[in-house]
Amino acid sequence: MAVGIADLHLHTRVSDGLASVEEVLKFVEHRTDLDVIAITDHEDVTGGLRAQELAAKRAYRFDVVPGSEVTTRHGHVLALFAERDVPSFRSVEATLERIHEQDGLAIAPHPLSWLTRSISERTLDRICGRNEAGVTFDAIELANPSPAGLRTRARALRLNAERWRLPASGGSDAHHLLHIGTGWTTFEGRTAADLRAALAAGKTGGELSRYPHAAEVGYRRIAMGLAWGYMATPRKILRGKWRSG
Fold it and tell me: Which of 4, 6, 10, 196 has a beta carbon 3.0–4.6 Å from 36's, enabling a disulfide?
């Protein structure tokens, strides 16, 4: 069977990414060879749902998985195959339960990182040691080329091999178009359904390439992205989308 590649961690202007949903889809279609992408805007599934609808309507060659990056009291969690928002600022256990209640999958992004809200070694030990249905991670992001993911990657790889033994995933954590596809998940098949089956079977891998330098992206765009990102939480509050449950 063919080996597919998926970028499972992308942001759009729905949260703190600089590109619109439409711009992300066009970039993936014409500038990458990705088979599957996941739109994971902070606390908000609407970008992923819109992307999935547009990709189908325009007959793009890749599949879109809707999802979000949920802020828990213990760090961020990626909710994939999620069509409803998951309440923010709850315990990681409650968040994992809510993701699985809607038949979603939960991934620990940029684990152990101190540069952004991340699941810690202690929390991963606790969750992986519980062996409780619904309160588990389905994968761990071990190929994230962003500064947040790269600095602790070696340690996360080692601890996952020694203790947690979670399926590996990869995602770019892209907030700019040029970052898309620099981190990816490998799996047998080409479709979102194939990806889901591979994650369930623990038969995925994570790989990465060089993250484009700020000069390549453009210092002005980087500055604009940071400003937009800092305003993401106030925007959610004003729109009633940032929920504590």
Answer: 6
Architecture per CATH, 3-239: Alpha-Beta Barrel (3.20)
Q: Average pLDDT across each block of 10 residues of the chain; the chain has 245 residues. List them in order.
A: 95 93 98 98 96 98 98 97 96 98 98 96 96 92 95 98 98 95 98 98 96 66 58 58 46
Instruction: Determine the pLDDT at residue 236.
Output: 61
What SS3 string covers the chain?
CCEEEEEEEECCCCCCCCCCHHHHHHHHHHHCCCCEEEECCECCCHHHHHHHHHHHHCCCCCEEEEEEEEEECCEEEEEECCCCCCCCCCCHHHHHHHHHHCCCEEEECCCCCCCCCCCCHHHHHHHHHHCECCECCCEEEEECCCHHHHCCHHHHHHHHHHHHCCCEEECCCECCHHHCCCEEEEEECCCHHHHHHHHHHCCCEEEECCCCCHHHHCHHHHHHHHHHHHCHHHHHHHHCCCCCC
